[in-house]
Specification:
Pfam families: PLATZ. This is PLATZ transcription factor family protein. InterPro entries: PLATZ. 15% of the residues lie in helices and 20% in strands. It is an alpha+beta fold. The chain has one domain (7-28, 71-219). The strands form five sheets. It has a four-stranded antiparallel sheet with strand order 6-7-9-8. Strands 4-3-5 form a three-stranded antiparallel sheet, with no helix packed on it. It has a three-stranded antiparallel sheet with strand order 10-11-12, covered by helices on one side. The longest helix has 9 residues, at 196-204. The radius of gyration is 21 Å and the shape is elongated.
């Protein structure tokens, strides 16, 4: 895999650079406690060599000769540009998206309802619908899904479960799908709350009476 000054194993999985776990567990986009008075004090950078938490642009002055990456945000979820992360990490199988004309991948899984009917390909770990050429929805899911102890299987009616129920077998013992969720969440930082400005605007917003468009669509007037 991509280079790192040390390597760690994830529950007996294939080896990953030592900075991967800390990166996925880090909460970004908070204000830097050291440079709070600086003009650009939002922490959206990460040093792969120091692995000492999120950094702001002023912090980077102490990491000039280090490998640093920038974390971005899409719909309140952390993403990174493919051109940056693929220098250090094998992202084969992780679904990519185009945001602001740049190809990105998500750091962690995003909660979602059960896949819609007709979806033929889903994330091996969290079941998010994917394009046929991909296996995982995020870097976090790839780490979980490539563990040697990870094996998802269908539990059929003969096993006492429904046809659609899924479980994970670890070291010969079958556990409920909740184990998978707990495993994913061990990498996922909590999502920061929306800003007060957004909450204020939402409180002021007043819905009007919905009207049907001539084509059958729904128009909401505000």
């Amino acid at each position: 895999m991509g280079g790192g000054r040390g390597e760690e194993e994830d529950d007996g999985s294939s080896k990953w650079p030592a900075w991967v776990g800390p990166l996925l567990r880090t909460s970004f986009f908070g204000q830097c406690k050291v440079h709070a008075a600086a003009h650009r004090s939002e922490c959206n950078m990460f040093c792969l060599d120091c692995v000492n938490g999120p950094l702001c642009s002023v912090c980077l002055n102490l990491h000039k000769d280090h490998r640093t990456i920038q974390i971005r945000r899409s719909s309140y979820h952390d993403v990174i540009r493919v051109c940056e992360i693929q220098k250090y990490l094998d992202i084969t199988g992780v679904q990519t998206y185009i945001i602001n004309s740049a190809k990105i991948v998500f750091l962690n899984h995003r909660p979602q309802p059960r896949p819609a009917k007709g979806v033929t390909n889903t994330c091996r770990v969290c079941d998010r619908g994917l394009l046929d050429s991909f296996t995982f929805c995020s870097l976090g899911c790839k780490i979980v899904g490539t563990s040697k102890n990870f094996q998802k299987k269908k539990v059929g009616k003969e096993d006492g479960g429904s046809d659609s129920e899924e479980s994970m077998s670890i070291n010969g013992s079958t556990k409920h799908k909740q184990v998978i969720r707990n495993k994913i969440q061990s990498f996922t930082p909590s999502t920061p709350p929306r800003t007060a400005t957004l909450n204020y605007r939402s409180a002021k917003r007043r819905k009007g009476v919905p009207h049907r468009a001539p084509t059958g669509g729904l128009i909401i007037q505000y």
